[in-house]
Structures are given as C-alpha cells and as structure tokens.
Amino acid sequence: VSLGQNLSQASLHLSKVVFSLGQATDSILGKSSTDITADLGVAQAEINRAHELLSLISADLAADRPNFKKLPLPFITNLYSQLETQMPRITTSVSTLRSLLTVTPNIIGLDGRKKTYLVLLQNNAELRPTGGFIGSFALITFDSGKLLDFQVEDVYSADGQLQGHVEPPSPIKEYLGEANW
C-alpha cells in the first residue's frame, strides 16, 4: 500500500513540475507574464519532493521483491515487475531534470547578465570529429529570463564571410577531398 501511495504522490509532484515549467516556458517565450523565478522555485521544490519519494519507492521495491514474487495475483506481480524495470530510467530522468533546474536561472539570464549561446546543428550522416557536418547554427539570446532573439543561419552564410585560403590538414584533404578549410 505504501508503495502505491508513494508512487501516486511522486506522480502528483511530477505533474506540478510539468505545470510550473510550462508556466515558466510561456513567460520566457513572452506568451505570459508569470514570475519565472517563482515558477522555477516551485518546479525545484516539487522535483526534490518527487525525488525523495522515488528513492522510497526504489527502497520499497527492493525490500518487497520476495513478497511480490509469491503473490497469487499475476497482474499485481506484472505491475510490480514493470515498475521495477522502469524505476532506473525514471530516477535518472528526474535526477537529470533536478540538475538542469539548478542551472536554468543562470542559463536564461536571471542573474542579471544577458546571455547569448551558439548552437551548432550537425548532420551525423556526414561524420566529422565533432559528431557531424555543421550545416546550420543558431544564436539564442536571453536577458532577465526572457528569450530576446533566436536566429538560425546556414553555415555557408558565415563561411562566405571568410577571406583568403586555408589549406586543410592532409587527412581532410585526402579522405574528404576538401580543397579548403
């Protein structure tokens, strides 16, 4: 019973995280004017509580494993097995989101500094040392928790501004047939 109660409560807290993050996202994108700091604070508190409950669930699953295997109700044993299988993925996802929420205020410029990020959009079907051919890039600018600018550019528009010739390293020239670098 406690396993079910903790699972229900964890789900409730995670739904509150999603709601708060939705409100914060709408505000970041200029679709609403909610208090981003408050929304992120609620999300952080709710995900911390969900994380605590998920830890209790994992402990309950480990402690109750012998008892669940003996139950004559196959559907309960099946539900238990599914939950036991999914818990590592769920806890990893929640832990990742917890970490992301701690740095989000800084990323979106709530620290009072304007932030601009370069995002490289790569095609992994054309292998390069960084993971793929950079076909496009985006410049994303935040200030005080608001998205100010989002521009996507073709990499050739930036390459076209370069002057002169740079000889590529011999493996790039030899294996990729590139005359310029």
Please supply descriptive tags for the structure shown above.
59% helix; 181 residues; flat; alpha+beta; 5 helices
How many E-type strands? 3
- How many alpha or pi helices? 5
* Strand order across the largest sheet: 1-2-3
- The proportion of strand residues reads 15-25%
SSE run: HHHEEEHH
Q: Oligomeric status of the shown chains?
A: single chain
> What value does the average pLDDT take?
90
Distance between the termini: 64 Å
Kindly name the structural category: alpha+beta
User: For the CA atoms, what is the radius of gyration?
Assistant: 24 Å
How is the main sheet built?
Answer: 3 strands, antiparallel
User: What share of residues is helical?
Assistant: 55-70%
**Morphology:** flat
The low-confidence runs, each spanning 5 or more residues with pLDDT under 50, are none
Word description of this protein:
The structure is a single chain. By secondary structure, this protein is of the alpha+beta class. The chain is 59% helix and 16% strand. Strands 1-2-3 form a 3-stranded antiparallel β-sheet.
Summarize the structure.
This protein is an alpha+beta fold and 181 residues long. It has helices at 2-28, 36-69, 74-107, 155-159, 170-176, and strands at 115-123, 133-143, 146-154.
Write the layout of secondary structure elements.
Layout: H1 2-28, H2 36-69, H3 74-107, E1 115-123, E2 133-143, E3 146-154, H4 155-159, H5 170-176
Antiparallel strand pairs: 1-2, 2-3
Helix pairs in contact: 1-2, 2-3
